Amino acid sequence: MFEVRADDLAAEQVKALLEFHLIGMHGASPPGSVFALDLAGLTSPQVTVWTAWRGERVAAVGALKMLGDGDAEVKSMRTHPSFIRMGAGSAILDTIIAAARSRDVRRLSLETGSGPVFEPALALYRKRGFVNGAAFAQYRPSDFNQFLHLDL
Fold first, then answer.
1. In the chain, how many domains are there?
2. What is the pLDDT of residues 97-139, one digit of tens each?
3. Closest C-alpha to 90, from 103, 74, 114
4. Residue 25 CB neighbours (<10 A)
5. DSSP for residue 93
6. Distance in angstroms (rounded) separating the CA atoms of residues 99 and 64
7. What average pLDDT score do residues 3-17 get?
8. Domain that holds residue 105
9. The domain spanning residue 146 has which CATH number?
10. Mean pLDDT of the region 19-31
């Protein structure tokens, strides 16, 4: 079981997990195809970040970015390698979906990449009902990027 809580990004291990996420996204994506938020982006007023903890160890992170007009976006989903396939990512995504519903979001969307490194996350999103669809917000379609949506 994991304790999921809103996070202010002050803990060093949370910062390290987010840095690991950014490095991983840049390593697995073509130039110009990474839209992951840095710490400054994650602390903007329209973004709420949650972390999943087991004891004193951070297991996963994820965020909800409010886009306006009933739309929101899942951002910065990453599970620590020590907690892969243990439910930490699911706990974060379920928290994000519940928060979006409580904020009267009508459509929750996300942008992600293509290829084997992205398949586990895609499986989780699809298991929760997300379906592929059109680009949204500031994104533009490409051969690499995918856009998924969940109608709430």
1. 1
2. 999 999 999 999 999 999 999 999 999 999 999 999 999 999 9
3. 74
4. 19
5. H
6. 8
7. 97
8. 3-151
9. 3.40.630.30
10. 86
pLDDT > 90 in the chain, percent: 88
**DSSP letters of 1-17?**
--EEEE--S-SHHHHHH
DSSP 46-82: TEEEEEEEETTEEEEEEEEEEEETTEEEEEEEEE-GG
Structure tokens at 148: 């998924």
For 51-105, the pLDDT digits (tens) are 999 999 999 999 999 999 999 999 999 999 999 999 999 999 999 999 999 999 9
Q: In what order do the strands lie in the sheet with 57-68?
A: 3-6, 47-54, 57-68, 71-79, 107-112, 146-151, 131-132
Query: For residue 34, what pLDDT band results from cuts at 50, 70 and 90?
Result: confident
Nearest to 69 by CA among 24, 104, 33: 104
